[in-house]
User: Which sequence fits this backbone?
């Protein structure tokens, strides 16, 4: 695992200066002290320590943090009212000076600068060529990754491929590139990386990107930018590697004991000892059912809209009236792997989310919370998919040392199947290969094959729903909504399921608006975030280049 390697204090000094010093134009000065730049880049071992520090900047809190990005969508919401998803994103009351993505711009360019320094110094170093090419390939992968994160949020951005230094007298200000130029830059970085990266690394280098990872990122960039033919071709390159296959058990993809498998292409690794996170605190049910400890925050509550997207195993939609009296029986297996519903076993006991009128205000309980009286579920559901069932939520661990070791899966074969299906359908309509890849995913969920003879638009609807349920809580939904131009789904109130138990013991199920689930989306401007005003103030070439509406 690359993140657990120990670095010397001297090299760490240079790492800190590279990643934290971003000045007005993301500039740094030459490190001072006993270690020189020449010494840092004198060996592959030192260069790898620098590289590993950049790996440490790969984002994962959008999956495991206190406010996962799924909460920005119609799939999920947080229990408490203070997270970004229920303030800035829900209200859409921000501008260029206080955007939720403002810090992403700053850290993105700081990370890109670190990559540019590494690429320049390694290229000019005397490191043996075999090691040099692998280092350069990883640097390009990381730079392309960080640029793609910026592209998703802002569209076209300034493309900087050298370390900026005002002392040289050169121009340190860059104009904003077009969206197409930004994607072309990312594609070139991924192509160069794929040519030099191995198909697989040894165990000691677990966590580094492979050829498949570079191609996976390229396919996603091509999909998001509607380069349909290129995306299909890139997916075919991944399939031709012959090293990836679907696992039989969907739930096993996200459990520490089985997460090293044939489906995962690239992930961020955690071992719970030298590196961990606190998903079991942030995203677990409010009260642990076995211990009774109220240490979970419930900050990833699945909505009824997401539940409705999961079909029944007889092929009927999730809203089928035929299943209204038993809505949690006979669902897609991916539903049970992702969502905790009323009466579901969890961590050695049962989670009850039905409405309980006897719960006192100010107490803690998992039952449906009509107006946030007991910090229960606001939607009638809790999250499951990425949680380790062997860990009991503990604020002691959260405040001292996070111990969760579930990896953050960024790319896997199931997504590549969906990338291919969408791009090929947009390119030429439904064909046998599209059906095969989608039906393979559906069969794993226990669902029947898609009906034959679907028209292009019908297949598009099916693909979008398959993508929604297959990749739920994997950080894809928000960006899918933006690129599909369906922002209206975010503007609709988030729904929950209120379950009442009648005197005769019968349960009734009523769809309701979730408390705190009102959201907004400005169709004219919210498909992109504003470029931070501070960046525009510092760079005169960004004047007049702001995104629409800001």
Assistant:
């Amino acid at each position: 695992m690359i993140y657990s390697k120990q670095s010397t204090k001297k090299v760490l000094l240079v790492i800190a200066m590279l990643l934290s010093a971003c000045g007005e134009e993301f500039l740094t000065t030459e490190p001072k002290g006993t270690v020189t730049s020449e010494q840092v880049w004198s060996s592959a071992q030192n260069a790898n320590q620098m590289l590993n520090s950049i790996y440490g900047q790969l984002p994962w809190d959008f999956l495991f943090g206190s406010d996962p990005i799924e909460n920005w969508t119609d799939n999920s919401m947080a229990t408490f009212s203070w997270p970004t998803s229920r303030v800035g994103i829900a209200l859409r009351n921000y501008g260029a000076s206080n955007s939720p993505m403002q810090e992403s711009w700053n850290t993105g360019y700081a990370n890109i600068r670190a990559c540019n320094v590494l690429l320049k110094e390694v290229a000019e170093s005397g490191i043996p060529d075999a090691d040099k090419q692998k280092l350069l390939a990883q640097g390009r992968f990381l730079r392309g990754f960080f640029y793609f994160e910026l592209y998703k949020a802002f569209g076209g951005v300034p493309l900087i491929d050298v370390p900026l230094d005002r002392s040289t007298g050169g121009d340190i200000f860059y104009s904003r590139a077009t969206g197409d130029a930004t994607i072309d830059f990312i594609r070139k970085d991924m192509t160069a990386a794929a040519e030099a990266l191995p198909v697989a690394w040894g165990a000691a280098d677990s966590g580094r990107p492979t050829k498949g990872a570079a191609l996976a990122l390229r396919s996603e960039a091509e999909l998001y930018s509607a380069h349909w033919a290129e995306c299909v071709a890139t997916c075919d390159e991944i399939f031709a590697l012959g090293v990836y296959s679907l696992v039989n058990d969907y739930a096993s993809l996200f459990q520490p004991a089985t997460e090293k498998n044939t489906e995962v292409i690239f992930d961020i690794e955690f071992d719970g000892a030298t590196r961990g996170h606190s998903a079991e605190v942030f995203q677990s049910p409010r009260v642990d059912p076995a211990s009774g400890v109220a240490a979970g925050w419930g900050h990833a509550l699945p909505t009824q809209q997401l539940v409705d997207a999961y079909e029944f195993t007889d092929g009927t939609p999730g809203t089928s009236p035929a299943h209204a009296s038993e809505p949690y029986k006979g669902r897609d297996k991916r539903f049970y792997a992702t969502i905790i519903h009323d009466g579901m076993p969890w961590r050695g006991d049962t989670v009850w989310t039905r409405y309980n009128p006897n719960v006192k205000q100010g107490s803690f309980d998992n039952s449906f919370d009509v107006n946030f009286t007991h910090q229960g579920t606001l939607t009638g559901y809790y999250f499951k998919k990425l949680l380790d069932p062997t860990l009991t939520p503990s604020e002691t661990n959260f405040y001292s040392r996070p111990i969760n070791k579930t990896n953050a899966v960024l790319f896997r074969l199931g997504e590549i199947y969906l990338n291919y299906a969408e791009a090929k359908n947009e390119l030429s309509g439904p064909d046998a290969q599209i059906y095969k890849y989608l039906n393979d995913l559906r069969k794993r969920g226990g669902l029947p094959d898609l009906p034959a003879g679907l028209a292009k638009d019908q297949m598009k609807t099916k693909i979008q729903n398959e993508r929604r349920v297959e990749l739920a809580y994997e950080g894809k939904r928000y960006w899918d909504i933006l690129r599909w131009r369906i922002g209206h789904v975010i503007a609709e109130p988030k729904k929950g399921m209120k379950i009442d138990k009648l005197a005769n013991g019968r349960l009734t199920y009523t769809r309701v608006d979730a408390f705190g689930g009102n959201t907004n989306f400005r169709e004219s401007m919210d498909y992109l975030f504003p470029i931070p005003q501070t960046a525009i103030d510092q760079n005169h070439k960004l004047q007049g280049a702001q995104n629409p509406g800001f």
Remarks:
- The first strand starts at residue 76 and ends at 77.
- Residues 187 and 248 are 32 Å apart (CA to CA).
